[in-house]
Design goal:
The structure holds two protein chains of two kinds. By secondary structure, chain A is of the alpha+beta class. Chain A contains two helices and six strands; from the N terminus they run H-E-H-E-E-E-E-E. Chain A has a single domain (about 5-115), classed as hypothetical protein PF0899 fold. In chain A, about 25% of the residues lie in helices and about 35% in strands. In chain A, the strands form two sheets. Chain A has a three-stranded mixed β-sheet. In chain A, a hairpin with a 5-residue loop joins strand 3 and strand 4. In chain A, helix 1 (about 5-20) crosses helix 2. The longest helix of chain A is centred in the first third of the chain and has 18 residues, at about 5-20. Chain A starts with a helix and ends with a strand. Chain B is an alpha/beta fold. Chain B has a single domain (about 15-225), classed as P-loop containing nucleotide triphosphate hydrolases (Rossmann fold), CATH 3.40.50.300. Chain B has eight helices and ten strands. Chain B has helices at about 25-40, 55-65, 85-95, 110-120, 160-165, 165-170, 190-200, 220-225, and strands at about 5-10, 15-20, 20, 45-50, 75-80, 95-100, 130, 150-155, 175-180, 205-210. In chain B, a hairpin with a 2-residue loop joins strand 1 and strand 2 (about 15-20). The chains are: A alpha+beta, B alpha/beta. The interface of A and B includes residues 36 and 95 of A. Strand 6 of chain A pairs antiparallel with strand 2 (about 15-20) of chain B, so a sheet runs across the interface.
Chain lengths: ~120, ~230
């Protein structure tokens, strides 16, 4: 259950951005969570709901966009993996580059600005 | 530390920005500071992770036992646990300085816990700093601590399917240590299949078979840690 730590870190980032832009509060927070980021999207949403109270994101809606794992292989293959194995599903080599799916990113933030 | 924040849309009283920033960037920044401090002091940091009971502390004891006894001041250990200082006591009894970090209920160490604990440890003359993470095969994987190598312990009694069940942890491993190899005759643990599955999750990871009891693989592990 490290989702609470991650949400508290997320809320720190959100509050810093709200202050930096002299906004009043955050209204919408969009995060992108990779399938292999080690974070459970549902738990993250639950933790956000609990932890946002009393912060500048208290009224904010959280949108979680899930990102599947994508790789790029020397053989030219670009796309998803199979069975959570980080090998090329076409040529079978393990020397591949992971291009998405391990990240947890604060993608977009919508804020309410002053009068 | 400033991140690029790009404003691209004003709509009435709403402002939308796209920070495109890791949720753990605060932890990552602090970890980078710790890393720099260790580098300046010529210290190699090792983050030792694994399930509770995977033999992390016993592995440290075995590593200490194979280190030149006159040079034990070159080693230091931070011990992360939910409660008690038992693990730090075990290391202290071996003649190596150890600082306990009790996390209360936190299931992983974070860079801030490490930074705080390092205040209490004299790093003078230290060459290798081990950080034994909280026993957990999920949460610690995402929290950088500023160390140079991630070592993941998987014990023989846990079963050879552990890596494929916990791929996120294996993905961050530089070295996967199969511990308690002296128990191999008593378990259906297929070392080759396990190696293959680790390779299919993270082909950069080294796999070493060790036993803290017999000392098997410990000098090879020292070599890998220092490489």
């Amino acid at each position: 259950m490290h989702e609470f730590s991650i949400v508290s870190s997320l809320l720190d980032l959100v509050e810093a951005d709200v202050r930096k832009h002299h906004a009043r509060s955050a209204t919408r927070v969009v995060v992108r969570i990779g399938d292999m980021s080690g974070v459970v999207a549902e738990l993250l949403a639950e933790a956000f709901h609990v932890c946002k109270r009393g912060t500048l994101a208290e009224q904010a809606e959280l949108v979680v966009e899930k990102q599947e794992v994508l790789i790029s292989c020397h053989c030219g293959y670009k796309g998803p993996i199979k069975d959570r194995r980080f090998i090329c599903p076409v040529c079978g080599v393990a020397d591949i580059e992971v291009t998405a799916g391990e990240e947890m990113i604060l993608q977009q933030l919508e804020m309410e600005v002053g009068e | 530390m400033c991140e690029e924040t790009h404003s691209h849309q004003h709509s009435g009283h709403r402002l939308v920005v796209e920070p495109q920033q890791s949720l753990l960037s605060n932890n990552d920044h602090l970890a980078a500071h710790i890393r720099k401090r260790l580098d300046n002091l010529g210290i190699r940091g090792i983050n030792l992770m694994g399930s509770p009971g995977s033999g992390k502390t016993a592995l440290l004891e075995a590593l200490i036992d194979q280190y030149p006894h006159g040079n034990l001041a070159e080693l230091a250990v931070l011990e992360g646990d939910l409660a008690t200082s038992r693990d730090a006591d075990r290391i202290n009894n071996r003649g190596v300085k150890a600082q306990q970090i009790t996390t209360g209920s936190a299931c992983h160490l974070s860079a801030s816990m490490v930074a705080e604990a390092l205040i209490g440890v004299s790093l003078e003359g230290v060459k290798t700093l081990f950080i034994e993470n909280v026993g957990n095969l999920v949460c610690p994987s995402k929290f950088a601590l500023g160390t140079h190598k991630n070592v993941v312990a998987v014990s023989i009694p846990e079963g050879d399917d552990k890596p494929i069940k916990y791929p996120v942890m294996i993905r961050v491993a530089d070295i996967v240590v199969l511990t308690k190899a002296d128990l191999l005759p008593h378990f259906d643990f297929n070392v080759e299949r396990c190696r293959q599955e680790i390779e299919q999750i993270n082909h950069h990871a080294q796999v070493l078979v060790t036993s803290a009891k017999t000392g098997e693989g410990i000098s090879e592990l020292w070599q890998e840690l220092q490489s």
